[in-house]
Amino acid sequence: MNKKYEKLFEPIKSVLLIGGGPAGMEAARIAGIRGHKVTLIDKNPVLGGLLRTAAVPDYKYRIGKYADWMERQLENAVVNIQRGVEVTADMVKKMKPDVIIVATGAKPFVPDISGIESNNVVYAIDVLNKEAKVGEVIVIIGGRWVSWETAYCLAKEGKQVDMVVRSALLPDESIFNKYTMLDELPKYDVTIYLKWWPAEIRNNGVIIKNKEGNEKFLEADTVIVGTGFISDHSIYKSLEGLAEEVYEIGDSVSPGRIYDAVHEGYLRGKEI
Ligand SMILES: Cc1cc2nc3c(=O)[nH]c(=O)nc-3n(C[C@H](O)[C@H](O)[C@H](O)COP(=O)(O)OP(=O)(O)OC[C@H]3O[C@@H](n4cnc5c(N)ncnc54)[C@H](O)[C@@H]3O)c2cc1C
């Protein structure tokens, strides 16, 4: 153990980290270095959470390297890691940890559009993670980075992509990502319908409208929803009262960026 942290904790606590994204990995790393008995459990066979998805576009591969580095650091911090296990309240009751830290991430926002439940509708996150199949002619709904990155990856594969973006072009995107995207997309078969919105999803496409009252039909065999993420407190709420200390960190509190998740994880790992 790193001697610098030796006297910083008292007493040693058993800490259960649920979720191995950047927030959970950083909290586990710091708590482990400080000498707590830490177990980190993730439902996926690979740690990293959305870092793995963020690293899918080729120009962002370094984010994957960061996830690999974090995973290696957990071994150094003597964290007990369980991969491929979905944590439930019943499991936690049996484990009886002193501290629970929930870092289970956000969930996709589901917009209220007629036809959203149709069979031809999939979510951008599942497309990037290769968990959803898509056709050749695609409409992507939403202007968040998840939708831009999905458009970029599919257009590079040679698919025809239309994007329907209600507000501004990449309003909350970092300058680095924004200009890479705005430089790259015009090289491919992508049409952006800016300041249009989807009125209805049909099994062969999407009807879109704008504020001037115009209406268009965009043909598609697959409609991809990429309208961002919302917080998800369901796991945290199911665990309240099951340990002396129960905390929630990262995107499950409020969807943000990698920096926010890591910073929150660091602070929580340092405080327990
Ligand atoms: C497409 C995309 C691109 C992005 N690009 C960037 C970028 O370029 N720069 C940037 O700063 N941010 C980016 N982000 C945002 C960033 O990835 C997230 O803010 C960050 O990953 C959130 O970290 P987290 O640890 O809170 O949650 P997550 O990364 O979502 O990790 C949550 C983990 O919890 C696990 N889990 C959930 N439920 C359970 C359970 N019951 N039991 C066990 N495990 C469970 C999941 O498997 C997952 O591994 C991007 C996001 C997306 C979707």
From TrEMBL:
One Pfam family, short name: Pyr_redox_2
Needed cofactors: FMN
GO-annotated molecular function: oxidoreductase activity
InterPro entries, sorted: FAD/NAD-bd_sf, FAD/NAD-binding_dom, NADH:flavin_oxidoreductase
Domain (FAD/NAD(P)-binding) ranges: 14-237
Keyword Oxidoreductase: yes
Keywords tagged on the record: Flavoprotein, FMN, Oxidoreductase
PANTHER family: 2,4-DIENOYL-COA REDUCTASE (PTHR42917), 2,4-DIENOYL-COA REDUCTASE [(2E)-ENOYL-COA-PRODUCING] (PTHR42917:SF2)
Protein's name in the database: FAD/NAD(P)-binding domain-containing protein
